[in-house]
Amino acid sequence: MTGQGLGKLLMQRIIDYARGRGIGEIFGDVLAENTAMRGLCQRLGCTTAAALPGEYGIMRVRLAL
Question: Into which CATH architecture does domain 6-64 fall?
Fold first, then answer.
């Protein structure tokens, strides 16, 4: 199913649900080497913070709603 848009669809549903519930921000932790997921997050408007302290290879992404 790779490349068919399922990840984007699921992420958009999560974002829409969170907005509907009045949530102001969502965040997630992504492996630094997972460039596909980091790219998807960027296209959805997320910002990427620096690597998490003490967690080698993990990046935190955030989306203000």
Answer: 3-Layer(aba) Sandwich (3.40)
pLDDT of residue 1: 63
Residue whose C-alpha is closest to residue 61's, from 46, 45, 51: 46
Q: Which parts of the chain have pLDDT scores under 50?
A: none
| 13/30 Cα distance (integer angstroms) | 18
Sorted by where each begins, the domain ranges of the chain are 6-64
Number of C-beta neighbours around residue 46 at 10 A: 21
Structure pTM?
0.79
Name the DSSP letter for residue 24: -
